[in-house]
Amino acid sequence: MRPQQALGGGKKRLRAASKGGTAAGVDPSACASALVRACADAAWFAALGEPPTRAESQQARLCAQALGARRPAVSWLQEPTAVETLLGQADATGCWWEREEAERRRLRLRAEGARDKAAVDAGIERLIPWLLAPLEGAAARALLRLGATDAALAKVAAGAAAIAVQQEYLRRLAGAPEDHGFAQKFHLFLAGRWPLFLEGERLWIF
User: Fold this and answer.
1) pLDDT tens profile 192-204
2) Per-residue pLDDT, 19
3) 68 in Cβ contact with 99 (< 8 Å)
């Protein structure tokens, strides 16, 4: 499921909540509840278009490395039009998405291997309120601040954030470490950014 599809597909304080562990040692309901609290406290998309802080730059490099870059470079976009152009070009290849989707499936299998599949799905259901309107509303407000009124871009942003929430949920259930790429990406979203994708060695962020 790509970011553009996440809103429709959603229905079918940071540190303590994000710790990894053994796959069997994390309760899906408790994991989902912790993520709901983190989502409620987040500044979704509030930093779009702003110059990165030193801490954000470091976080972005860590994210790029965790997603597979050996010599990471980070590009920060400041205009919605630049984001739309870049996303259009990225859709032509899809390589970045295929890598993330393969990792998501791997984590899901590991999570389900340690507990009942229905319990994993129940946790995702718990997250549904944060996979729909709140994210799209936050994205629309942030984009409007930058002069963008295209509702489609807000839907794509919300879809990307929704996917990041689901990825982080599976990362925690699978017991993957905190330096995993999905965790790093989730932290950037919570800080108000929109990590777009990794292209080769370069991570693009809005």
Assistant:
1) 999 999 988 899 9
2) 46
3) yes
Distances (CA, A) of 66 to 21, 78, 98, 156, 201: 18, 24, 16, 23, 11
Do 73 and 64 form a contact (C-beta atoms < 8 A)? Answer: yes
Which of 42, 93, 86 has its CA nearest to residue 203?
86
Q: What is the pLDDT of residue 129?
A: 78
Question: What is d(CA 17, CA 5) in angstroms, rounded to the nearest whole number?
Answer: 27
Q: How many residues does the chain have?
A: 206
CA 8 to chain centre: 16
Domain ranges of the chain: 3-7+24-205
Alpha helix ranges (H) inside 91-202: 95-113, 117-127, 133-145, 151-173, 181-190
Q: In a 10 Å sphere around its CB, with 0-12 CB exposed, 13-18 middle and 19+ buried, how is residue 6 labelled?
A: buried
How far, in Å, CA of 203 to CA of 67, rounded?
A: 9
Residue in this structure with the two tokens 């802080």, named with its chain if needed: 53
CA 157 to CA 188: how far, in whole Å? 13
- Distance between start and end Cα atoms, the chain: 21
Three-state DSSP state, 75: strand
**Predicted local confidence at residue 153, as pLDDT:** 95
Weakest-pLDDT range from 42-51, 83-92, 102-111: 83-92
Question: How far apart, in whole angstroms, are the C-alpha atoms of residue 196 and residue 99?
Answer: 14
The pLDDT assigned to 24 comes to: 59
